[in-house]
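Figure 3 (text version): structure tokens given as input.
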């Protein structure tokens, strides 16, 4: 029993090293799954795949990528402005996934337009940042 107390700091140190080395494991898994889902999406254009199934297959990689990116940003803790911009991008992917599942109509069109506006805004921010860096 005397040795059990002396091993505790070693166990805590090993747990810390494991957690530090694997802190992005969840994000990496989501990223890998989104890539696999994107490959499945490319194969889902076969004529025998129903349209509704294709909609779900197209939504999955978008949602996984957006959720994974959001988790990464929350874990990285960038400055507030950068965090908000990155979360907008992540949200745009998730919203795009939702749009894939909606029936065609005014709501789907409106949400699709919101996604487009968010992507254009994000690209505009990137352009402005890169131009400013090049000065």
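Below: residues designed for each position.
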């Amino acid at each position: 029993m005397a040795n059990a107390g002396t091993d505790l700091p070693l166990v805590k140190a090993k747990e810390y090293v494991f957690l530090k080395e694997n802190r992005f494991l969840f994000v990496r898994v989501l990223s890998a799954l989104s890539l696999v889902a994107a490959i499945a999406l490319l194969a889902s254009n076969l004529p025998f795949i129903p349209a509704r199934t294709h909609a779900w297959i197209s939504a999955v990689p978008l949602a996984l990528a957006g959720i994974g990116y959001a988790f990464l940003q929350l874990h990285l803790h960038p400055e507030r402005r950068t965090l908000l911009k990155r979360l907008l991008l992540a949200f745009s992917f998730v919203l795009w996934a939702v749009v894939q599942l909606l029936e065609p109509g005014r709501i789907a069109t409106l949400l699709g337009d919101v996604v487009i506006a968010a992507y254009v805004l994000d690209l505009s921010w990137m352009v402005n940042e890169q131009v400013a860096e090049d000065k």
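The radius of gyration is 21 Å.
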